[in-house]
Write a structure and sequence with these properties.
Length: about 80
């Protein structure tokens, strides 16, 4: 669970960085804009993707902190490992 949580948090961070590039890019490509009547290009709405990325980072961090190994090793000879 710890490895899965770490990977999920890293994927969330990378996806969030990609979303922020779209938000912060000063010269967005204008091929996707429709109906713009002023000089300001329309930027995509990144609310939902950023919420999903933030949730992935939080859930991945919680899995890393609180997750165990995912299995138990028993020294009982009657239990198969």
């Amino acid at each position: 669970m710890k490895i899965t949580g770490l990977i999920l948090a890293l994927v969330g961070l990378v996806a969030g960085a990609i979303c922020m590039i779209q938000v912060l890019q000063p010269t967005a490509p204008e091929r996707d804009t429709t109906g713009v009547h002023d000089n300001q290009p329309r930027r995509p709405n990144m609310t939902v993707p950023l919420v999903i990325c933030g949730a992935a980072v939080v859930i991945g961090g919680a899995m890393y902190v609180f997750g165990g190994r995912g299995y138990f090793v028993s020294n009982n000879p009657q239990v198969r490992n």
